[in-house]
């Protein structure tokens, strides 16, 4: 149930657990690697394709221009024929050739000028007698444009003739090849990622197996199985973690065993001491009762000493009984002897036997006709400890209220409240009220209580299958609330 609630309450963690993150990381690395490789390959292949085409075209066009036989001044008709001849010999494919000479514009096409040729290319051609080239995209189509001026040799130098030829070659075929490469790279990446998923899952499984084993081992130890160990395989970090877990578990098991043995010895010692003290205490109590009866005939100092011995012996007897009761709870030997009783009548008997019948001290709000199955002796201890604690540490009057409540779901419960008129419980003392030997006022090393009353109350309430809690009332004073099922089936602590 706890696992189901945990999974249902954490959908994000379920969707993006360690396995998912490992697989995604593996696929991300594979995708980045494939993308980087594809990008570098695409760039290098694209440059190689375009440069090969460009070098071939530029070299061939320069040779054609160098062999051009045109007289000056230029004859337009003759020049057009030469341009068409050059265009037909274009490499690696046919060109569109244009010529500019002063105001004369001639081409191998029906249009004498080209919108693809840029002013930058014209300036570069006039500056360099070897000519220049440029890749241009026009209307979404790529072109290679080449400009070569026609020159003639004069000794050891070249003289411009004023005639410049331009070649325009579409690069659609090269771009189609590049796009085909991109498509092939993209189509190949998807199967590559699918193939990468297999080692990703295998790697995630190999990593998560020891993690799952560690989780199960931790849960097993949490359930009290301190002998749980993990089989450590290999020499990697996960194997080191498994060995560290085993070492820690072994040390914890040894420590817990030693603590349990020490606790068992302490409980046995307390039980043995309490048991051994009962017999001499019984004799001491009998003697002090006789001395109390004769104290009136003694002198004042002797009578005071006798009464002090009697009081302290009584306190010692209470402490011994409390220690024996706690020992029975610790040994899980405490038992319930249930009987159906009238709760109001049972509480009145408790108050009367402790001589708490004065309304100035204790006010009882006890409606009749509330019956419950409880252990009368243990219920008497619960009431007596709570009322006695309220009188000692709170202030009179102390109010005892009883009611029966039926929650919206579940069985009916008996509710008993014991409220005092004192200053309430301090924030520091609240978490420790039911601890053994705890006293809210550390300065009071001696008091009427043993420090075990509320701890015994808690154990008795638990034995009945109920709960007890403490709080401060809104108008002041402390309130202890006990809730017991009205149909207790009986239990053994």
Automatic annotation (TrEMBL):
<keyword id="KW-1133">Transmembrane helix</keyword>
<dbReference type="InterPro" id="IPR004358">
    <property type="entry name" value="Sig_transdc_His_kin-like_C"/>
</dbReference>
<keyword id="KW-0418">Kinase</keyword>
<keyword id="KW-0812">Transmembrane</keyword>
<keyword id="KW-0472">Membrane</keyword>
<dbReference type="InterPro" id="IPR005467">
    <property type="entry name" value="His_kinase_dom"/>
</dbReference>
<keyword id="KW-0597">Phosphoprotein</keyword>
<dbReference type="Pfam" id="PF00512">
    <property type="entry name" value="HisKA"/>
</dbReference>
<dbReference type="Pfam" id="PF02518">
    <property type="entry name" value="HATPase_c"/>
</dbReference>
<dbReference type="InterPro" id="IPR036097">
    <property type="entry name" value="HisK_dim/P_sf"/>
</dbReference>
<feature type="domain" description="HAMP">
    <location>
        <begin position="205"/>
        <end position="257"/>
    </location>
</feature>
<keyword id="KW-0808">Transferase</keyword>
<dbReference type="InterPro" id="IPR003660">
    <property type="entry name" value="HAMP_dom"/>
</dbReference>
<keyword id="KW-0902">Two-component regulatory system</keyword>
<feature type="domain" description="Histidine kinase">
    <location>
        <begin position="272"/>
        <end position="488"/>
    </location>
</feature>
<dbReference type="InterPro" id="IPR036890">
    <property type="entry name" value="HATPase_C_sf"/>
</dbReference>
<dbReference type="GO" id="GO:0016301">
    <property type="term" value="F:kinase activity"/>
</dbReference>
<dbReference type="InterPro" id="IPR003594">
    <property type="entry name" value="HATPase_dom"/>
</dbReference>
<protein>
    <recommendedName>
        <fullName>histidine kinase</fullName>
        <ecNumber>2.7.13.3</ecNumber>
    </recommendedName>
</protein>
<dbReference type="Pfam" id="PF00672">
    <property type="entry name" value="HAMP"/>
</dbReference>
<dbReference type="InterPro" id="IPR003661">
    <property type="entry name" value="HisK_dim/P_dom"/>
</dbReference>
